[in-house]
Design brief:
The protein is mainly α. It has three helices and two strands. It has a two-stranded antiparallel ribbon with strand order 1-2. It is elongated.
């Protein structure tokens, strides 16, 4: 058989969960919710194949989403690299680092003006 519930997905899982809380959640789903148990060997062949195909399609869609998210993250990393500028020594420097350096220069200038 199989159990399908959000608690057992990457998004629904919480490291605080222990085996007892998982069993209580499954029991609650079966008793109070609309969960059901159905052994695969009791299913008609067509229903078994249909459920299997659905599960495989869901898994494939999840894998595609993960791949798309990874690709999007790589694209963001590429964009960050493209946004880098060269400093006076010719080294690549990120925009944030340039802003930090500029802020530091402004603070030094203000301090020197106050001391004069």
């Amino acid at each position: 058989g199989a159990i399908c519930m959000e608690l057992l997905t990457k998004e629904g899982w919480n490291p605080v969960n222990d085996i007892e809380s998982v069993i209580v959640s499954v029991r609650s789903l079966l008793v109070v919710g609309e969960g059901r148990l159905e052994a695969a060997f009791n299913l008609p062949e067509t229903k078994y194949k249909s459920l299997l195909e659905t599960a495989q399609a869901v898994k494939a869609a999840a894998e595609e989403n993960e791949a798309a998210a990874a690709e999007e993250e790589e694209d963001e990393d590429d964009q960050d690299r493209k946004r880098q500028r060269k400093n006076s020594a010719g080294d690549a420097v990120s925009m944030q680092r340039q802003r930090d350096e500029l802020s530091e220069q402004q603070r030094r200038l203000l301090r020197s003006e106050k001391s004069s």
